[in-house]
Design goal:
Number of domains: 2
Shape: globular
Number of strands: 19
Helix content: 25-40%
Mean pLDDT: 89
Strand content: 15-25%
Largest sheet: 9 strands, mixed
Number of helices: 13
CATH architecture of the largest domain: 3-Layer(aba) Sandwich
Radius of gyration: 24 Å
CATH class of the largest domain: Alpha Beta
Low-confidence stretches: 1-7, 14-45
């Protein structure tokens, strides 16, 4: 169906509702005009969908620690001591049959096995095996659920990230954070329900871009898309008043604009006009809430030290992890941190350890910080990338700066903590070469369904009608992974 025609159909229905209820836009306008003063707090209005959550939730907020570029499960999470015996031997052809590889290695003449570049060791009371490059993650081993049997259909970065974030490899679907904000609504009136921050390794070795559709709202109203906080200047564009404009003048201007928008909504019923009204309102509130949020000067030195040496450098992964905690405790529903630097095609020996050093301590600190504040039980912390890496070598093994591992989607690892996920638990298993899942496979849609489940959402019931079809995050697939939740 033509989207313009569909909008006309939605318009007629909305006009019927508007006749009895005057429309959401007019409700927002009346709330604005009902204030005694321009800077007064707006009256609280219900958010989220009726009947959602569908059942009692274990969690009410989510933070995604996205490791862009794909961390090597072979080197970090999937302990296979027997790989040392097969060092530089040819990976058996029987294992490689039918496996989809990227064009960078699909036509390699040889596929020599490369064991982990650093030793593994056991951590915590659970005895979880992790690389010694992740000592801080090892320190929270009893709080995390390590899933070693993930698999995905994607073998390239943008489709892989898009698939995990939106349920489709093709851009245009709502992101997970948008679905959560749409279904559950906001827990605060002063900050967005869904916030995104990005960072990169210092030398920017990865080269992967973060596209807006990774946190977009797709075809659901755009007020549910993620709000990106920048590391330079105003965290959000145009947050500061222009020179010569007082807060009182800005509020008066906003009220006049909302009157015009409400009249436009009355004429056309376009839901994006409602979004515009809501975003003007949120932007005004954020002029006060965001500066306070981003001022970490009053954080205790013990907390700053816990996040590591980069925590006071704006734009770093460590700084963003601390801001994530501050957002969560102030009521933001979904926080998405996106960090690039894990794409080690030719610099595995030199870059992987540096990347772990940048991200290991802040990731663990966020879990510990939430736990000591009593927030981990109802907060989901997800650490993940778009796929894994090959057990065989890409490039010249004799060139320290010229070899690494290629993309691999048939098996990889992630960890998840809090929100009713089993701490100190390892789920799933791969074969002796980290190449095939042999027990308890978990697909991307399964993980999405499980995260929604912990938020009290039945993934098959959270839908949005578009172009004649009811869409959902998990498309037509996905099963809750009962083995990783309590």
């Amino acid at each position: 169906m033509n989207p313009l025609f569909e909008r006309d159909l939605r318009l007629s229905r909305r006009q019927l509702f508007k006749a009895g209820a005057q429309g959401i836009g007019l409700a927002a306008l009346s709330a604005l005009l009902a204030q005694e003063g321009y800077g007064a707090t707006l009256q609280k209005r219900p958010t989220g969908l009726p009947g959602v959550p569908h059942f009692k939730p274990r969690a009410k907020r989510v933070v995604v620690l996205w490791q862009g570029g794909a961390p090597s499960h072979v080197d970090l999470f999937d302990y296979k001591p027997q790989l040392d015996k097969h060092r530089l031997e040819e990976l058996p052809a029987s294992l490689r049959e039918g496996k989809r590889l990227s064009t960078m290695t699909a036509t390699q003449a040889k596929y020599p096995v490369l064991p982990p570049i650093k030793p593994f060791r056991q951590y915590g009371k659970s005895g979880m095996w992790l690389s010694e490059m992740l000592p801080h993650t090892g320190g929270i081993a009893d709080d995390i659920c390590l899933v070693k049997s993930m698999h995905t259909d994607a073998v390239n970065h943008a489709p892989g990230v898009t698939f995990f974030m939106t349920g489709s490899q093709i851009p245009g679907r709502p992101s997970m954070g948008a679905w959560v904000a749409y279904g559950l609504g906001s827990m605060t009136e002063d900050l967005p329900a869904f916030v995104v921050m990005t960072s990169s390794d210092e030398k920017k070795t990865c080269g992967q871009l973060f596209y807006d559709y990774y946190w977009g709202s797709g075809f659901i109203p755009s007020k549910y898309q993620g709000v990106r906080f920048r590391s330079e200047g105003d965290p959000v564009l145009y947050l500061s008043n222009p020179p010569g404009m007082s807060p009182e003048l800005r509020r008066a201007l906003l009220v006049d604009i909302v009157k015009l928008d409400a009249k436009r909504h009355d004429d056309f019923g376009d839901p994006e006009i409602e979004t515009r009204i809501a975003q003007y309102e949120m932007a005004f509130k954020m002029q006060t809430s965001v500066p306070e949020l981003t001022d970490i000067s009053k954080e205790p030195r013990s907390i700053l030290d816990m996040y590591g040496p980069d925590v006071e450098k704006k734009g770093t992964y460590a700084h963003n992890c601390l801001l994530a905690r501050r957002l969560l405790e102030r009521g933001t529903r979904f926080v998405q941190l996106m960090h690039s630097g894990w794409d080690q095609h030719g610099n595995l020996d030199t870059q992987l350890e540096l990347q772990c050093r940048d991200t290991d301590q802040p990731s663990a600190a966020l879990v510990m910080d939430l736990k000591q504040r009593g927030m981990l039980d109802d907060t989901i912390v997800l650490w993940a990338g778009e796929f894994g890496r090959t057990v065989f070598v890409q490039g010249d093994i004799n060139n320290k700066n010229g070899h690494g591992r290629d993309h691999f989607g048939d098996c990889y690892s992630l960890w998840i903590a809090g929100g009713g996920f089993k701490g100190g638990h390892v789920h799933g298993e791969t074969d002796d070469f980290c190449y095939n899942v042999v027990r308890d496979p978990v697909g991307v849609h399964d993980m999405q369904a499980t995260i929604l489940n912990q938020l009290g959402i039945d993934h098959t019931r959270l839908t949005y009608g578009y172009q004649g079809r009811d869409f959902r995050l998990t498309d037509v697939e996905g099963e809750v992974v009962r083995g990783i939740v309590t």
